[in-house]
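Sample 3 of the quickstart, ligand 2'-deoxycytidine-5'-monophosphate:
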Amino acid sequence: MIIAIDGPGASGKSTVARGVARALGFLYVDTGGMYRTLAWHCLQLGVEMGNSKAVAAACRRWKTRLHRLEGDPAEVVLLVEGFYPGDALRTREVAKAASDVAVVASVRLWMKRRQRECAEFGNLVVEGRDIGTNVFPETDWKFWLDADASERNRRRSAQGVEDNLAYRDRQDSQRRATPLMAGLGAVRIDTTAMPAAKVVERIVGSVRVGT
Ligand code: DC
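Result:
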């Protein structure tokens, strides 16, 4: 069973997706984290982000594999040569680079294949930008989270994270390959004034009723 949770940056996806995975005993998959891992690797190699051919080549060649990371909830992540970069993925530089590598069509195809393979690990809560539209369009469980731009910027500042959300929103929504979009039939939840625990309750409730 796959629960897809999509939306822009700081819409509450990570906290909510983790909460839902914990409540249902599912694995958590952060697809943004996977784009961030490739971006981190490209930055290490000194690949120029605007050079889509070089980014595509780095994606073809990197030595990576899926790995189950124990935790509450357990998570499926990408390792780079056996290493998980962890907190190094959360910088402003890596966030911007992740949005840049995510524009490249062959990278998106590669990510879609890896992300679908995650289902071999078990039931999943998958968060991202194109999960309901592109990665798992067949799932019956699609949620779209959003919040006012000012609230999203406030959340990032409160987390002490510098993030150029406006740049990423624009690029993620306007790219040609599988842009940021709500999936057909996705349940839309405005999280501007709703605590994460309530959003989790709502999603878990509707999944339990529907199964
Ligand atoms: O959710 P995040 O901030 O960790 O995502 C980082 C970037 O990765 C985001 O700006 C766009 C890209 N991304 C994507 O294109 N598709 C996804 N399913 C997830 C993330």
